Amino acid sequence: MGREIRRVPANWEHPKNGNGKHQPMYYRFYGDALNEWLDNKTKWDNGTHHDLIEDPSLKEKYPNYADWSGEAPNKKYYRQVEFSEDDLTHIQLYENVTEGTPMTPVFKADEFEKLCEYASKNCYIFGHQKASKDDWMLLLSDESAFVKCGDIAFL
Fold this sequence. Notes:
Blueprint: E1 3-8, H1 30-46, H2 50-54, H3 58-61, H4 65-69, E2 90-95, E3 101-102, E4 107-108, H5 112-122, H6 133-141, E5 148-149, E6 152-153
Antiparallel strand pairs: 1-2, 2-3, 2-4, 5-6
Helix pairs in contact: 5-6
């Protein structure tokens, strides 16, 4: 199972679905994901998409961009609120096998060790295996565990 640390506001509450369970959600803001998809669709339609430049025959196989890339982003799987960097003062551990659901409560950004201590007692590292605080720290201190938002690398 993949893990990532997301920067979140102090009062962050991950959205829940109609069943009261956490709604899987990408870290990206919906507006950004939609704009990127629409930009790529426009490029596909006018033949300037990088994949069409490399292989123009793709347009015959996939006349519509959605046939090639999938439908436009679904709003329920993306953040609806755009945060400024100043808002993102806390951290939370997420699994990212799905779009992402939280594994821990929210911690202050400087409480990385507390987050790892919580994970050692309450989270599985693989299947039903637990790991020590030190193992979580080692796993999560890898730069790839931290979400990158635009050009900003968090933590």
